[in-house]
Amino acid sequence: MDLHSIFRMALNLQRIICCGSVTVSMGGDSITITRDEIILDINNPKKIKKLMDAFSTILGKDKGGIGEKKEMMNEMKLYAEDLASQGKTVVIKYQGNEVVKMGAEASSLLMNAFGMKHIEIKYKLDTLRMMKDFM
Question: Residue 17 is part of which domain span?
Answer without folding.
Answer: 3-133
